[in-house]
Amino acid sequence: MSMDFDNAVTAFEDSTDFTVGLEEEFAVLDPGTRALTPRFEELRDAAQADPVLAESIAGELISSEIEIRSGKGVDVADAAIRQRDHRRRLFALAQERGIALGATGTHPFSDYREQRIIDTEHYHRVEDGLKYVAWRNNTFSLHVHVGVQGADRAVQVCDRLRPVLPLLLAISANSPYVDGRDSGLHTVRTQTFTKSFPRCGVPDAFGSWQAFRSYLEFLVATNSIVEYTQVWWSVRPHLSFGTVEVRICDAQSTAGESDGLAALIVACVAQAARDVEDGVPFADPPARLIEENMWRAIRRGLDGPLIDLERAVEFPGQAALERLLAWTAPVRAELGIDVALPELNGAQRQRRMIDAGAGIEEVYAATVRETRETYAQEVIV
């Protein structure tokens, strides 16, 4: 299979700056045990009675996972309004069917070996190509698409976001548990996914559409990929949508955090685009330096120090949000983007409970409750 690169260029040329699409992944749970349960197909089929919901949900690798999509919003506020409506519909349907939904980066205790891959051509291809790597990947994320006009500009925006990714990851960290134990990490999802999948994590800097296209042509020519979505980087130009897609973040336990994080990501993409336009000097940091910050974000999230790569000094992880807000202040003012996030992120809240002696079941029950009470909104709980 070959990719239509000319159509990809057209998609970027026709793209409108800073339109937004949101994708949120939820665990499908038994409401009593809060274990993963393979009922995606049941939800998908039941959603056909609601055309809006049917259009907005999608499968995501395993039958105990469901994705909800906002569709294209004119800006982040519009996308959030759309997504809130879709969430309400999904949570109401799940409640009707006796299904709970969870929103952490990993499921704390369900066995990945018991999960079933959904029956689609794409995910059969993923399973056939990756085997254990696919089976092991029971993870849940927030993806944000931001329209960026121009293929060269989109690639250059991705380049400038490379050193930003660890800060976004630290802010979003929400997965301390996996396989029934405390991993000791703040985002074990990232360790499981980005350190396991091929063509994943922080990409190289390409500098231009032509260089990026040459790499994709190499992958196709060498039978490494047959579709573009087999490039699983944490930030990538999306060839079909004409967007920059940021994929680094854990799923968020509360709707407010998901909305705030999405707004922050849109601000980062938009500021990077403005910096490209304005010729703001930028030296692409080597991958080895960005990886140091990636590991720190994985291990301690906002509770440990990160590295100022330009100055080669540490700074408190808790200052990551402050730094991104300072950088994006011009474009947030221009576009009217408001970013509101709590003092403690999901991993920190879970870690505080762990440190106070709470067990895995109690901690996860608290996150599922947060999710139900905030994402469901108009559903009586």
Q: What's this model, at a glance?
A:
The protein has 381 residues and is an alpha+beta fold. Helix content is 46%, strand content 16%.
Protein traits:
two-stranded antiparallel sheet; 16% strand; Creatine Kinase, Chain A, domain 2; alpha+beta; seven-stranded antiparallel beta sheet; 381 residues
The CATH architecture classification is 2-Layer Sandwich
Task: Give the structural class.
Answer: alpha+beta
Radius of gyration: 20 Å
Please mark out the parts with pLDDT under 50 across 5 or more consecutive residues, or reply none: none
The profile of the biggest β sheet is: 7 strands, antiparallel
User: Given this structure, which CATH class is correct?
Assistant: Alpha Beta
* CATH fold node name: Creatine Kinase, Chain A, domain 2
**How many H/I helices?**
15
Give the number of domains.
1
Helix amount:
40-55%
Number of strands: 13
H/E series, N to C? Answer: HEHHEEHEHHEHHEEHEHEEEHHEEHHH
* Principal-axis shape: globular
State which percent range the strand residues make up.
Answer: 15-25%
**End-to-end span in angstroms?**
48 Å
Report the average pLDDT across residues. 96
Structure description:
The radius of gyration is 20 Å and the shape is globular. The chain contains 15 helices and 13 strands. Helices cover 46% and strands 16% of the residues. The protein is α+β, with helices and mostly antiparallel strands and 381 residues long. It has a single domain, classed as Creatine Kinase, Chain A, domain 2 (2-Layer Sandwich). The longest helix has 24 residues, at 255-278.
